[in-house]
Amino acid sequence: MQRANRSFCLRGGRLLLMSQDYSGQTLMWEVTQRTLNGSQFYTYSICNVEEREQDNWLRTTFIQRRPSVSQVFVELQFIVRDCNSFDGASLTCKETFNLYSSDADADVGTTFRKGQFKKVATVAPDEITKKNDMRINTETKVVQSLSQKGFYLAFQDIGACIALLSVRVYYKACPATRKSLASFPETVAGGLNQQLKKVTGKCVDNAYSEDLPHIYCTADGEWVVPVGQCQCVAGFEEVEDTCQAQFIFALITWGYKTYLYDEYLSWVLLPYLRGILPSANTGSPRQWEECQALLQHVLA
C-alpha cells in the first residue's frame, strides 16, 4: 500500500531553541558534540542526576501547522544513561523524560510559560547506556487535537542523564492516486476522532460517471475501499487508468481538423468505414449509430 509521511519544514533547519531551568539550579540543557561511528554530530544533553526535584525544559521553535492537520507524530532519537553507573546518585537519578506540546496562533519568540504546555507522554528508553556501551533509542509519540496556526514542543528533564540526538515532526497522508479512472488528491489522514476520511474523486479526461467514485483514507495514510467507477466516453478505451482514443476515433478527429468536413466524410471516412466494418455496407443501424455518436463527440 502506498502511504506518505510529510515532515514539517523548520525555520533555518533548527528545531530546538530555548532551555529553561525551573529547579533553582544553574545546570540546564546544553549543546554537546559527540562522535558516533566515526561521525561527529551535535546533541542536546543534560546530566544533573545528583540534585533532587529537577525541572529543566527545552523548547522548540514555532512550528507552523497545515490547516488540515490535526495530529502530528514526533519521532525522537535519544540516549539515557544507566542510573546505576553513578555512585551514590541512584536515589535521585531518573531514566525518563517528558514530552509536552502547546497550541499557539503566533510565534511568541523567547517567551516561555510552562503553564501553557500540556503533557503528551513520558518517554522511556527500551535500552539504557551502560558506561561505554552506547544504546540509541527511537520512540514515536502522537500529538493530537491541534487546531491553531502552529504549535511548540517541549522536553522536560526531571533528573535523568539524557542526550537528545534528533527530533522529527511529521504527519501522515494518503498520496495522490488514480483508481477506477478517477483521480484522488493527496489527503491528510484523519486524527483521533476520524479514523476514515471519505474522498470524492474526479473522472480522468475523456471519462464520465453519473455518481462520482469515492475512496477512504485511513489514519495510517492508506487508501482503502474504492467505491464506484468512471467510464470512458464513446471512442475511447481504458489504458492504465486513462482513457485513450481508439484508432478509428483518432482518425475521425484528425480528419475533421485537417479537411473540410463534408469532403473528408465523403472521400476518406466513409470508404474507410466500408472497408473495415462489413455492417457499413449493409446499413446496420447499430454500427451507424456508433459512428454518428463518434462524429457528434468530435463536433461537440
Automatic annotation (TrEMBL):
Q: Which GO terms are recorded in the biological process aspect for this UniProt protein?
A: angiogenesis; axon guidance; cell adhesion
Q: Which UniProt keywords apply?
A: Angiogenesis, ATP-binding, Cell adhesion, Cell membrane, Glycoprotein, Kinase, Membrane, Nucleotide-binding, Receptor, Transferase, Transmembrane, Transmembrane helix, Tyrosine-protein kinase, Ubl conjugation
| Annotated localization | Cell membrane
Q: Name one GO molecular function term.
A: ATP binding
* Claim: Cell membrane is one of the keywords in the record: yes
- Cellular component terms (Gene Ontology): dendrite; plasma membrane
Give the EC number(s) listed in the UniProt record: 2.7.10.1
Q: How does it sit in the membrane?
A: Single-pass type I membrane protein
Domain Eph LBD, by residue range, is 1-179
Q: What is this protein called?
A: receptor protein-tyrosine kinase
Species in which this protein is naturally found: Gambusia affinis
